[in-house]
Amino acid sequence: MKKYFYFLSFIFIFSCTSDKTQEDLLPDLASSMCGEIAYARSASVDSAKSGPWEKDSTWDDHVPTISDYVYINHSISIQKNAAVAREIIINSSGKLSSEPNGVLTVSEDFIVNPSGTFLPKGELVIGGNLIVDSAKVFFNDEGNSGSKLELEGDLKLLGSANFKNYSGTCENVHIKGDLIVDGTNVSIKGDTPLYVSGNVQYLNGATSSQVHIPISKTCDDVLPLELISFKGQYNSLKKTVAFQWVTADESQMELFYVEHASECQINVNGFKILQNTDVLPKNQSYNTYELELRLDPLNEDLYQKGFHYFRLVQVDNEGKKYSQIIVIKFN
Fold this sequence. Notes:
This protein is mostly beta strands and 331 residues long. It folds into 2 domains: 23-216; 227-330, Immunoglobulins (Immunoglobulin-like), CATH 2.60.40. The chain has 2 helices and 30 strands. It has helices spanning 2-17, 300-303; strands at 42-45, 51-52, 69-72, 75-78, 82-84, 88-90, 95-98, 103-106, 110-112, 117-120, 123-126, 130-133, 136-139, 148-151, 155-158, 162-165, 173-175, 179-182, 187-190, 194-196, 200-203, 215-216, 227-235, 240-247, 253-262, 272-278, 287-294, 306-316, 319-322, 326-330. A hairpin with a 2-residue loop joins strand 28 (306-316) and strand 29 (319-322). The chain is elongated, with a radius of gyration of 25 Å. It starts with a helix and ends with a strand. The relative contact order is 0.08.
C-alpha cells in the first residue's frame, strides 16, 4: 500500500515540476494551481469536418464543454446554446455561425484569426475581448437584424479586419470596453450604430473615416414610445428622399427636424440639419408626417453615391431627443 502511495506521489510531483513539452502548442492540460484535480482540455475541429456544434461527429475529440479551449478550422454552426469558460479561436479556414435561437457564452477572449469568419445571427456573450485580425465578423447580413453581442472587454480590429453591424437596434451590440481600430485597412460598416461605453482608439495610421456607422456612448438618447415609426426611401429617378414618421401623444412636442450625415462624414463632422417640420395639433390617436427632400447637386455631401444616414430630432419642452438612425443607399 505504501509503495502504491509513493508511486502516485512521484507522478503528482513530476506533473507539477516538469517543463512544457514542445508538442504542447495548445494550453496546458493541467490546472495552473498545482494540487487541484482540475483540467483545461482543448476541443478542436482540424480535419475536414463541419456541422452543428452539439454533434459528436463534428469535432476531432469531443464536443466542447465548459472547461475547453476551442479551436475551429472548419465550418461550425451553433443551433442551440453553448458555453465555454476559456477561449474560442477561429483559424484561417475556420467559420463559426449561429442561428437566431443559439446563445454562445465565452468567459475569456474570442479570437478570429486571419481569413477566419464569424457570422452570428443569435446571441453572443464574451467575458474577455473580441479580437478580429484580418478576418470577417458580420452581425447579420445586410437587410436582416436580430443578432446580439454583450462584450465585457475591448473590440480589437487589426490588419484588414472587416466588421459589419446589421443587428437592428443600438442596444443589440454593446461594447463595454474600448473600440480599437488598428491599421489603415480596417473597415466598419452596417446600418446600426455601434454602442461603445469605453473610448475609441485609432492606431498605426487608422482614422475615423474607416468607420462608416455612428459610434454612440449611450443608447438612452432615443425618442420615447410616442414615435411609432420613422422610415425613408430614395427615388433614383426623381433624385429625392421621402421620409415618413408616425407619432402618438404630441402634447409636449414643439417641432421635428431631420438630420443627415454622409458615409464619409458620419464620424468626422457628424449630423447636419436638413429641414424643420412644425407640429400641427391634431385630435387623432396617431399622426403621420411626410417630408420629401429633393437632392441638390450643389450639396456634395447629400448628392454623392453610397450610404447616407438620417435621424429624426424631436424638440419638446424638455429639450431634444433622437430617433434610431436609418441608413439609405443612394445609387
